[in-house]
Specification:
Multidrug-efflux Transporter Regulator, Chain: A, Domain 2; three-stranded antiparallel sheet; mainly alpha
């Protein structure tokens, strides 16, 4: 036992498949960073991105200070560049 837990046994095929999937995921994320992909965030994710509560995102939106870039149904969505611009303008 390791730390009170029984070790998990996996075969080489599992390790190879997992490693390939992880490598593909990391490559995708690196491409996003390199390309400067402008992602969309809902209020929860926008709050996490800015390090503020979701309610603050809603308050800023209600006040017209932070304008959503689009909607998924009634859910406001914010581009990363919009969130960055808000923070840079809030100095």
């Amino acid at each position: 036992m390791i730390g009170g837990h029984a070790p998990i046994r996996v075969d080489d095929v599992f390790v190879d498949v997992f490693a390939a999937a992880l490598a593909a995921h990391v490559a995708d994320r690196l491409r996003e960073v390199e390309l400067g992909e402008d992602r969309y965030y809902d209020a929860d994710a926008a709050g996490r991105y800015l390090g503020i509560p979701r309610k603050r995102i809603h308050d800023l939106t209600s006040a017209g200070t932070l304008v959503p870039d689009g909607y998924d149904g009634r859910k406001p969505l914010y581009r990363q560049s919009t969130l960055d611009a808000y923070v840079q303008g809030a100095r």
